[in-house]
Write a structure and sequence with these properties.
By secondary structure, this protein is mainly α. The protein is built from 2 helices and no strands.
Length: 61
């Protein structure tokens, strides 16, 4: 049934979309922290971005 396939497709891509949106938010926060000269915050956010990238990569395998 087409509806079941659509639901399965949405369920499988939703985590990637959520993580991708989170990555966009982290990137904006990194930019803001860098503009403010907040080195410690930038480092923390870069660690978060790295974790998100790993999660996205695992989901895409």
């Amino acid at each position: 049934m087409q509806t079941e396939n659509d639901i399965e497709s949405l369920a499988s891509i939703t985590p990637v979309k959520v993580l991708s949106q989170s990555m966009n938010n982290v990137a904006k926060a990194i930019d803001d922290a860098a503009e403010d000269g907040n080195k410690q915050q930038v480092l923390k956010l870069v660690d978060s971005a790295e974790s998100l990238l790993k999660a996205i990569s695992q989901l895409n395998q």
